[in-house]
Amino acid sequence: MSPLPLPVRVAAGLVASAVEQARDLPRLVVELPVTAVSQALQASMRVQQKVTELAIKGDQALSTLRPVDERPSWATFDDEDETPPSGNGAALVTELHRPSRPEPPADTAVETAAAATAAAAEGHTPEPAEPAEPEASGPNALPGYQELTIPQLRGRLRHLSADDLRALLEWETTHENRAPFVTMLSNRITTVTEG
User: How far is CA 94 from CA 19, 60, 89, 90, in A?
Assistant: First the structure.
């Protein structure tokens, strides 16, 4: 059997395609609005992309003719100075210094020791000194406590007894009452007493 001519085969293929399309028509009718909206959105996005590309090319072409200010006049803030600092700001950097504590003069300690020795030689016994009040920089349990940072304090708390820790906590609550310090001291007291 000889094959049918090409036009007949093409016509039969068209009829078969039309029948398949007719069978899919109910499904296509339901999908048609969604497809139409989707294609319309895609077309509008393509148009927006083309317009944006043209605007960018236009900006580039115009920037060669008229340079754009790096900082627009409307972009100012209240806390800025009118004149920008020169250089990289090195003139604005200040040196940090640790607060210095005055050292007691050496001759005062020598004089005190000499006076105590002379008094003892004459038979005078010095009266017991009253317990010293905690100095302004911290309690007796940890001198210089007030200047310590949290990490420095954490490192020193390991070597203190529960009584010393309670004294620090009492001093902190009556003087500075800094929440992180109070919390750290309270936690350390709990750890020492329960551990």
Answer: 88, 44, 11, 9
- Check: CB of residue 185 under 8 Å from CB of residue 168: yes
CA dihedral 178, 182, 184, 187 (to 10 degrees): -160
Least confident of 8-22, 96-110, 147-161: 96-110
Measure CA of the first residue to CA of the last residue in the chain; give whole Å: 103
The one-letter amino acid code at 34 reads: V
Q: What is the mean pLDDT of the chain?
A: 77
CA distance 163 to 192: 10
Q: Which of 135, 124, 180, 185 is nearest to 156 (CA)?
A: 185
pTM attached to this predicted model: 0.32
The predicted pLDDT at position 142 comes to 87
Closest by CA to 167, choosing from 191, 145, 194, is 145
Rounded Cα distance between 13 and 19, Å, is 10
φ, ψ (nearest 5 deg) of residue 135: -75, 170
Residue 184, Ramachandran bin (φ over 0: left; ψ between -120 and 50: alpha; else beta): alpha
Cβ burial of 101 (10 Å; 0-12, 13-18, 19+) is exposed
